[in-house]
């Protein structure tokens, strides 16, 4: 009721305003809310599923399943309820008498799927078929002015037009029902602009096609800048009795629009009749030019572009495809934060506000006519294509039109894209080669890159590196992107997909459902929780690329960098640095954080240069250097970390803190050595060298059964025990045939235990190199460690994590599944220096002496897809210290086909010479 009264009050004010204004503008009054966060209650009846067979209330706009009605359907679902759900809506509204004489339209921005609209019991027009397109009816003659009006809408979840179902309802995504986008009344003077198309090019040329209803003598054009100030001269053109005209002019000194520099202007059109301004429309526009050069590339404003893109569904877990302007802003900001410059609308046009945000914040958009393996018939498709293009044609962010997806292309519609679009934007067929652009999906690295090198089309996969669970996206991206960047015929590509499509099931106690492995494909979780690939993408797609370098005492502060911006000089960015010395278990060793700024060098787009960082004289006494680059808007591009200290140095600092004032003793008990030092008692098997048990005082620490090599022969033999001064040494013997892998334990009087393994991996090609131990997962509470984190890594997804000291509480998250808590606890963690295991019993620490040690924490629950491509690989045991780890595949590719980083590890030295063995040294502190 309050909402109704609010609408009436606003309406009265609106009518007074319209009557007094010199130039009337198109005005709206919403009958629904504007999005998922401010719905308006309408009367509602659902024919089947939840809460069926009774009149009640529902929020509009919404997907009725998320409001507790009907039945949830995924695109591949063929159950008996499909096609039978009908929703009936009723809503009363009042139009003041002052509105009489205006043209009044009722506008629906989107309805799933067939909508039959009545005003006061009379059909407003033919049933609209097609979900993702705004449609309107002129209801000027059907409404009562100064009285109540009844709006009735009957919505069929599945269309009576089978081509609509083929294009929209049989795809690989959730299917919903309802009035899912806003509904409003549109008020215009009888003489008004009815259609408007704009083409503003990079050379300042401006053309517009304008159609209008009623009588007008003249059309006036004004250009306003971002501050609303007049830009250039006002341009006027006589109509000469026509109802549609083309208006052309030119503007000087225009700021161009691009994803990097999204400069916008307001183009204001005014209809004039007998000297009076009768109607005015304003559109935000950007001046830019798109050219596809055959066998060359896609050029924006004369510059060849590599699209760093992602596919994006309009989606939110609690509201389905009903979104909001705030969500659009949130999504675009996340994409920009990942250093993306493009987005593909998968697989239908988005909300109008999403395109507006892409205009203002800067993203290249591929807008797509719905179609997923199936397509609209020509008559329906032509109508819906016009509905897609007319309200969005002025958006500078739209760079491409896509005619369906993956075979859902109606070839007869291609000509209408050109006919309806004044800008003649390029049209593509995702998953096919069309118009000189090859967009095939999910190419294997070798085939795809070979085609980039030897093919003839521009190559731009509209889907690649499918992100099922934790595979894809970041895994393989570094290999793909470096190849894409270096190949002239590549125009980049679009990752699949932005966020997991997990929907809140109101019929199942609000559990989040991804329909098994159909929906968990995102870089983000359902509520946009950041997964590990988020940060990998952010680094790989950074427009500032740092050359890999090591920190040594000889370093003088010079970093080789490459400018991968298209329009931005590096001198428009800012750089800052920070030095940190971590508290290595003793606060007296910590140093104050030092920080400063560096001058941004003058490096043109696509050029290389030098960044000079003036570090203090004592910089080498710190543990890590952080470098942060920010863009022209002071948004972080990325923060790179450069470790300064080495693991052996840190381990020695920690060991030096421990007092060596205890005596080490040992005895032979059966098949074991029993060693005592301080309160510690450990057992090591005499024959195998395996750690059997650990006890500190009365506390049993269940860390044991290691080291077990993975992969490699556990052929440690011939152990002897002896005291070397105050240190106990237990060591195996080397034999080239029988015991070529060796193990040595040292127990020091300070209570630390050193383990040194010299070993040869078991295979020439192998996923693993390292050792495993057992520890019950139920006993772990958290870890603190020094290394790269906090996200886990794979061999083909090493970028993204930052070097530091991290605390991670235990969770049992499997990527893409409940409870969606990130970062995941289980998995591989890079560059471990030390780790403290926080347990339900006694805590313990492990120090690494070797560089590039991976900490493996337990094993995620095994998951697979029907093609057996994803398959995450983990070693035996529970906790491992690895020197080589596996890569990961994705839904469409095995790990090895994602590029060089996806291959197995290779070790050449097999002569079983001890000097050629790999060496792994760890220190354990169980006290």
UniProtKB/TrEMBL annotation:
Domain Glycoside hydrolase family 2 immunoglobulin-like beta-sandwich: 192-288
Ranges for domain Glycoside hydrolase family 2 catalytic: 296-509
Enzyme Commission designation: 3.2.1.23
One example GO MF annotation: hydrolase activity
Swiss-Prot/TrEMBL cofactor(s): Ca(2+)
Beta-galactosidase domain location: 559-618
Domain Glycosyl hydrolases family 2 sugar binding: 57-186
Signal peptide stretch: 1-23
Cross-referenced Pfam families: Bgal_small_N (PF02929), Glyco_hydro_2 (PF00703), Glyco_hydro_2_C (PF02836), Glyco_hydro_2_N (PF02837), LacZ_4 (PF16353)
Keyword Hydrolase found: yes
Keywords in alphabetical order: Calcium, Glycosidase, Hydrolase, Signal
Catalysis: reaction(s): Hydrolysis of terminal non-reducing beta-D-galactose residues in beta-D-galactosides
Matching InterPro entries: B-gal_small/dom_5 (IPR004199), Bact_Beta-galactosidase (IPR050347), Beta-gal/glucu_dom_sf (IPR036156), Gal_mutarotase_sf_dom (IPR011013), Galactose-bd-like_sf (IPR008979), GH (IPR017853), GH-type_carb-bd (IPR014718), Glyco_hydro_2 (IPR006101)
Enzyme class: hydrolase
Subunit structure: Monomer.
PANTHER family hit by this protein: BETA-GALACTOSIDASE
Entry protein name: beta-galactosidase
Record organism: Pedobacter alpinus
